[in-house]
Amino acid sequence: MSPARTPSGAQRLAAATPELLGGAVPARHGRVAVDELRVLANTAAAHGGRLAALWGTDERDRAGGLALHVVLAADAALHWVEVPLAEGLAYPDLSGIFAPANRLQRATADLLGIRPADGDPRRWLRHAAWPADFHPLRRDADAAARHETGVDDYPFVPVAGDGVHEIPVGPVHAGTIEPGHFRFSVVGEKVLRLEERLGYKHKGIDRRFAGLTPAEGARLAGRVSGDSTVAFAWAYAMAVEAACDCELPPRALWLRALALERERIANHLGDLGYLGNDGGLAFGLAQFMRLKEEAVRVNATAFGHRYAMDFVVPGGVARDPDPAALAALAAQSGALEREVRVLKDIYDDHAGLQDRFLACGFLEPELAAKLGVIGLAGRASAQAWDARVAPGYAPYGELGVQLVTRTAGDVAARVAVRFDELFESLRLVREIVARLPAGPASVPVSAPASSRRGIGWTEGWRGESVVSLEVDGGRLRFCHAHDPSWQNWPALEHAIIGNIVPDFPLINKSFNLSYSGQDL
């Protein structure tokens, strides 16, 4: 008799999440007891899994108490674990297993009042704008209530020693970027430590989703993060379609991919320009911003909006671009590639620019893996993951997406990943236009008669966006959107260490993370 085999991490996760969700993403949903959560998380981590999202919901109107929701990504599939919690019951701290859990747990504590038994007790979203005993995501919380603003005595971690002093930067900045506070501990100009304080853009989007119809929610999902409207709108639509058991026509999927690649192109063009500018090459900013403006103008003709706002909707896309618009997208991709290759040669050969890029803002691959860094920032530090290459992510399986990675982990590597991904997206646009299937671009979506859940997962230009929701009675009971910046902001605190303060704008831009996208 052969010895019994120990179940793999994927098998254990599958056993804990037995209910298969429909839709385009391989996903499961299940409930586990609170005392099983840490074991499950350790099992997932031991087999290469990672934390994809974490949030909470109020189920007391169903006699279900409060609930913690954890989404684990393992073996190119999502495992959505729900942990029921009685009032006052804590759950095990997951930040020692998955580093991104730290801030996600703190945000959930501020919004819902559920906390881990140990771990970092500091608040995250609540900037003394509401009382400590007020939790906006509880169903009995008065969303219209106004509160006196208290004193925001946030306990930053102090750094002591001879010659050490602090430099506070923000939350209001000299440029047009969104607010975020950065507390540098330095000796001279060398950075010993950086601590971030975000949450200034919190706008109650999770609460706003509740009660909307799936169609109304689509407009809100596309506005979670203005530079990732297609990524979030597609993830949201995917979740709705899973909950409503809706199968899309191939043309709709290909048009969504077309819009997503155009979104990636526009953002990479803008970032490469600003990176050149922050490195002292204003010529780069002028040229790349010219190219970005040309790109978004063609987007407006094809998608009805410069940034494809409201193009992706549940059931497909809102409009089917005419042949002339599609031809213009393909033609422009060729023209952009020729110009960008010239600019890449200029960047690569510019000694002053390379002196700023190379060995600046280094994030070693081992640390990137430990921190759970994803998206282009992760791929620049050897984290070989892109959801577009995952099995079942239509239509990318037919397009043969080339995974781009670097191992250096510095600003130069993040610039190189942007260039390579830009060229790949330009190729994909031409490929999609040439092979675009015939047929309808959308189908009707009917709300389910019973309560149903769905989850969506897209690889946006910054990284993967995850949207989880429940449809009940034809309306959203809840909807939670997760931005990849949750995983990547902590990495910036490490990448700046050992660099000088004036390099921070360049390092920060090389990550280009979202404030508003995660302050939901």
Features:
16 helices, Cytochrome-c3 Hydrogenase, chain B, 520 residues, Beta Polymerase, domain 2, alpha+beta, 13 strands, disordered N terminus, 16% strand, 2 domains, globular, 3-stranded antiparallel beta sheet
Structure in words:
- With 520 residues, the protein is α+β, with helices and mostly antiparallel strands.
- It folds into two domains: 9-112, Beta Polymerase, domain 2; 205-483, Cytochrome-c3 Hydrogenase, chain B (Orthogonal Bundle), CATH 1.10.645.10.
- The protein has 16 helices and 13 strands.
- It has helices at 9-16, 37-46, 101-112, 205-209, 214-221, 229-243, 250-278, 282-303, 323-349, 351-357, 365-371, 375-379, 396-399, 411-435, 485-495, 504-511, and strands at 19-21, 27-31, 50-58, 66-74, 77-85, 164-169, 181-187, 190-197, 312-313, 316-317, 452-459, 464-472, 475-482.
- The chain starts with 8 loop residues before the first helix and ends in a 9-residue tail after the last helix.
- The model is unreliable at 1-6 (pLDDT under 50).
Q: Please estimate the helix content.
A: 25-40%
Instruction: Count helical runs.
Output: 16
CATH architecture grouping of the largest domain: Orthogonal Bundle
Q: What's the mean pLDDT score?
A: 94
Q: Write the CATH fold name of the largest domain.
A: Cytochrome-c3 Hydrogenase, chain B
Strand order of the largest sheet: 1-2-5-4-3
Main sheet specs: 5 strands, mixed
CA-based shape = globular
Structural class: alpha+beta
Tally of separate domains: 2
CATH homologous superfamily identity of the largest domain? Cytochrome-c3 Hydrogenase, chain B
Count of beta strands: 13
Strand-and-helix sequence, N→C? HEEHEEEHEEEHHHHHEEHHHHHHEEEHH
* CATH class descriptor of the largest domain: Mainly Alpha
Low-confidence stretches: 1-6
From the alpha-carbon coordinates, what is the Rg to the nearest angstrom?
23 Å
The span between the termini is: 55 Å
Strand content: 15-25%
